[in-house]
Automatic annotation (TrEMBL):
It is found in: Membrane. Coiled coil: none annotated. This is MAPEG family protein. It comes from Zestomonas carbonaria. The keyword Signal does not apply. The chain crosses the membrane at residues 110-127. It comes from the Bacteria. Its main location: membrane. Keywords: Membrane, Transmembrane, Transmembrane helix. One of its GO terms (cellular component) is membrane.
Length: 128
């Protein structure tokens, strides 16, 4: 397995880390909340709500990242080291994105999001 493939696994796990922060950091998620977790998450506010929103965005971007990694591998136009570097940079951008989302740094978050999308596009470009 390449580093880039391991990064795909990390991208798949990141949304679950976000929802864990949203659910379990307040001490109010118990058995009753587990019967309707979507209702519980919809009722959150503040930074916990933003953690939930970061979860949703992480689920949205993961398929595009996974596709970019797989296509870059299959196309063979770029070195493995370059693909791995772009994948690691994407995961770092996602970690910053999640941190910015939770901290409510909206302008910075948007810039970091565009950087992440740019890294996905870069994988296609270098593989061409």
């Amino acid at each position: 397995m390449t580093v880039a493939f391991w990064c795909v696994l990390i991208a798949i796990i990141l949304p679950y880390a976000c929802v864990a922060i949203a659910k379990f950091s307040g001490g109010d998620y118990g058995p009753s909340a587990n019967h309707a977790p979507r209702e519980f998450l919809a009722g959150l506010s503040g930074w916990r709500q933003r953690a939930h929103h970061a979860q949703l965005n992480s689920f949205e971007i993961a398929p595009a990242f996974a596709a970019a990694v797989i296509i870059a591998h299959l196309a063979g136009g770029a070195s493995q080291a370059l693909i791995d570097s772009l994948a690691v940079a994407f995961i770092i951008s996602r970690l910053f994105y999640i941190g910015c989302y939770i901290a409510d740094w909206a302008p910075v978050r948007s810039v970091v999001w565009f950087m992440g999308v740019g890294l996905i596009v870069a994988m296609f470009v270098v593989a061409a």
